[in-house]
Design brief:
Bound molecules: nicotinamide-adenine-dinucleotide
Number of domains: 4
Strand content: 15-25%
Protein name: Glutamate dehydrogenase
Family: Belongs to the Glu/Leu/Phe/Val dehydrogenases family.
Radius of gyration: 23 Å
Keywords: NAD, Nucleotide-binding, Oxidoreductase
Low-confidence stretches: 1-11
CATH topology of the largest domain: Rossmann fold
CATH superfamily of the largest domain: NAD(P)-binding Rossmann-like Domain
Organism: Mucilaginibacter robiniae
Largest sheet: 7 strands, mixed
Structural class: alpha/beta
Distance between the termini: 33 Å
GO molecular function: glutamate dehydrogenase (NAD+) activity; nucleotide binding
């Protein structure tokens, strides 16, 4: 396989891997070769450089925005702040966003952004300058806007950066009523949405729960059905990793291992995720956590400890042909994008495992981003129009039933039945429904076609078919 030589002379292969996965899946579809080529290609790649003041001098920052597919508008995808970021990676992640949105029926094309910095090396003021300048550059070139391209947080960025983007864009577009819909993952106080922060991790946990609930699949890989008591290792205690671990524990799983870049900790009896998180906040490391039975200075050793489920939720290329045979988990749930190389995936399946692929497993973030965008365009929060109405209707019903039956409910029972849904409850309900439906859609494709050998291929097949229909509906293809 010829690797792509990218502009900064760093040889990488992530986009090629995504394209190879696409090509492999495409053989199970019946679309025209030209249409498949159009779906696979990156439509627009914008690479730019801009200066910022640093200390007494200047520094030039490398940045990218890639819009992979315009079969739906706007395009959507996070912005990565990382010194490892490069053009190939941003293209690959943008492509994954296209397929991800199709898988969870979110009507966006795929995009991704990258700023080549290590945020830890910059002051907050400098980060703000970088983010605002990045926003100006995107706006100038028409790579940003509520109907054009809508970024979100990714590795190294969060609500703070999204609010700087929203403010800069709104300032540059006075009078544009929908301006704040130019970016999602904003703080709730700045037109964000309840539940977005934890959405990706919650989605990962729901994906895992759905997978382990299918009895015949669990029998095939030698696990008992159900999440309860499943031993889980999570890599990365950032947004996705922390929330995945938190919700998996809430669903009944046991978090036996946690890995960060400084090392890993393990305890077969379980780790208290919140306590580990606080320990790391206070000491700067997960190592030294008093509840750990074992510690590993080499973080990757943590992935190889006994468990049923491994959730890589940090970076790509963490499970490779070199270490996959040492992984003891039967299920890998990809919280991060691209954590498993194609070679490692083939070996893992040969050894009787299941991989819940990134483009589905971590789609909770974009799903709730979609809800946030809808909220921004409609200028009203979910539940505002109907909550009180629902509560009054429920109250009338309860009063009537109590009157007819003569049975009085306790105050707790009454309030549980009467309560109308909050924005958070509606968001979580929409997210759960999306993750459950999408899992079974992918699984059905997998089960109904014996030649399809992985859930990833099944997910790609479903995505390709949906995107092909969009192109046909646009009239671009006959
Ligand atoms: P984050 O910056 O919040 O967290 C990443 C964590 O990984 C950090 O705690 C970091 O210290 C840790 N880490 C870095 N290198 C590591 C290593 N070698 N070993 C172990 N841990 C390491 O980022 P995030 O938003 O949680 O994103 C993580 C992954 O999830 C990325 O691949 C991202 O593309 C993907 N993702 C994120 C979202 C989202 O909503 N944030 C949505 C979909 C996919």
């Amino acid at each position: 396989m010829a690797n792509i030589l990218i502009a900064d002379n760093q040889e990488t292969h992530f986009f090629n891997d995504v394209c190879n996965n696409f090509d492999y899946a495409a053989q199970f579809t019946k679309h025209d070769a030209g249409l498949l080529d159009q779906i696979k290609s990156c439509n627009s790649v914008y690479r730019f450089r801009f200066p910022i003041r640093k200390g007494n001098g200047f520094e030039v920052i490398d940045a990218w925005r890639v819009e992979h597919s315009h079969h739906q508008s706007p395009t959507k995808g996070g912005i990565r702040y990382s010194e490892m970021v490069n053009e190939d990676e941003v293209m690959a992640l943008a492509a994954l966003m296209t397929y991800k949105c199709a898988i969870v029926n979110v009507p966006f094309g795929g995009a991704k952004g990258g700023i080549k910095i290590n945020p830890k090396n910059y002051t907050i003021q400098e980060l703000e300058n970088i983010t605002r300048r990045y926003t100006v550059e995107l706006t100038k070139k028409n790579f940003l806007g509520p109907s054009i391209d809508v970024p979100a947080p990714d590795y190294g960025s969060g609500e703070r950066e999204m609010s700087w983007i929203a403010d800069t864009y709104a300032t540059m577009n006075p009078g544009q009523g929908d301006a704040l819909g130019c970016v999602t993952g904003k703080p709730i106080a700045l037109h964000g949405i309840a539940g977005r922060r934890e959405a990706t991790g919650r989605g990962v946990a729901i994906a895992v729960r759905e997978c382990v609930n299918v009895g015949e699949d669990m029998q095939r890989i030698g696990l008992m059905p159900g999440i309860s008591g499943k031993r889980i290792i999570v890599q990365g205690l950032g947004n996705v990793g922390y929330h995945s671990a938190k919700f998996l524990a809430e669903f009944g799983g046991i978090i036996v291992g946690l890995c960060e870049y400084e090392g890993a900790i393990y305890n077969a009896d379980g780790l208290d995720v919140e306590a580990v998180f606080q320990h790391r906040k206070e000491t700067g490391s997960i190592l030294g956590y008093p509840g750990a039975a074992q510690e590993f200075k080499n973080s990757k050793e943590g992935l190889e400890q006994p468990c049923d489920i491994l959730v890589p939720a940090a970076l790509e290329n963490q499970i490779t042909a070199d270490n996959v045979r040492n992984i003891q988990a039967k299920i890998i749930a990809e919280g991060a994008n691209g954590p498993t190389t194609p070679e490692a995936e083939a070996i893992f399946y040969e050894n009787g495992g299941i991989i819940i692929p990134d483009m589905y497993a971590n789609a909770g973030g974009v799903t709730v981003s979609y809800f946030e965008w809808l909220k921004n365009l409609s200028h009203v929060s979910f539940g505002r129009m109907n909550r009180r109405f629902e509560e009054n209707s429920n109250l009338n019903l309860v009063n009537m039933v109590e009157g007819i039956t003569g049975v009085a409910l306790t105050p707790m029972q009454r309030s549980t039945i009467i309560k109308g849904a909050s924005e958070l409850e509606l968001v979580n309900s929409g997210l759960e429904d999306t993750m459950i439906r999408s899992y079974h859609e992918i699984r059905e494709t997998f089960v109904n076609n014996p030649k399809i050998d992985t859930l990833r291929t099944a997910a790609f097949v479903g995505a390709i078919n949906k995107i092909a229909v969009s192109y046909m509906n646009l009239g671009i293809w006959p």
